[in-house]
Design a protein that fits this description.
This protein is mostly helical. The chain is built from nine helices and no strands.
Length: 250
């Protein structure tokens, strides 16, 4: 059965078209990320009320929660891009997945580190083998393994395929992370807010958190497009359009 995809989907297969469109979007994502992150962090740290139980230590959620959400979203994007690359033989999709991996790994490290800082005053320990924490640690190992696969093959196409397979297999860890606090008796608290339930926090607490989440996503988009453009130039370095881009910059 033939699947009719929109025109822009096939345009993404063109390295030059992808490079150009990302170049147009980059400054907008940079501006949005700067405004949202600045506004969100000032709002959350300086103006959000103090929590009745945790005091001011809860404010680390404005860094921890967006990083944890983005770490999982990034992995899902990599799985989608890897699947598209394998099915439609789309080189740009594999490049997007490769470019996203270090960003996702960094967000996972931030989530684990800030979680430990938050856990010390809350649980009395920097680390516990909690289901949520353990599954997030596994996510970090998956990111590192995927990055290692990209570097292990001299043939980039082979590395793309191997990394895509590991990403798709590792995708099973995402629902484990999400539902770990419901499936097991864990110390980690449930989600602060979801799209289907009323937020557990008052608006003056969760609204700056929402701003920070949006800011993280915009920052991720900026980093992803910047890294993807560099990878495109590296892989297409003998193409006429890359030579033309280099000549323009000289």
């Amino acid at each position: 059965m033939k699947i009719n995809m929109p025109r822009w989907f096939y345009q993404l297969a063109s390295p030059k078209w992808s490079y150009d469109i990302m170049g147009m979007l980059l400054p907008w994502f940079a501006i949005a990320a700067g405004l949202l992150l600045t506004g969100g962090i000032v709002w959350g740290l300086a103006f959000a009320p103090t929590d009745a139980n945790q005091g001011n230590s809860y404010r680390i959620i404005y860094i921890h929660v967006p990083a944890a959400i983005l770490a999982q979203s990034c992995f899902m994007l990599m799985a989608l891009a890897g699947g598209i690359g394998m099915v439609w033989k789309m080189k740009v999709a594999h490049i997007v997945a490769k470019s996203a991996a270090p960003i996702g790994a960094s967000m996972t490290v931030i989530a684990l580190a800030t979680g430990a800082i938050w856990g010390k005053p809350t649980w009395g320990a920097w680390w516990v083998w909690d289901a949520r924490l353990t599954s997030m640690l596994i996510l970090l190992f998956l990111y590192l393994g995927i990055m290692a696969l990209y570097s292990a093959f001299e043939n980039k196409a082979s590395g793309d395929q191997a990394a895509a397979i590991l990403t798709l297999v590792g995708l099973v860890n995402i629902p484990i992370i999400k539902y770990s606090v419901e499936w097991w008796n864990t110390l980690h608290q449930p989600a602060s807010f979801t799209l289907t339930k009323k937020p557990a926090m008052p608006p003056e607490m969760w609204m700056p958190l929402l701003v920070m989440v949006l800011g993280y996503y915009c920052f991720f988009g900026f980093l992803l497009m910047a890294r993807t453009r560099l990878e495109l130039l590296e892989r297409e370095n003998k193409s006429s359009w890359v030579i033309a881009v280099i000549n323009e910059k000289i």
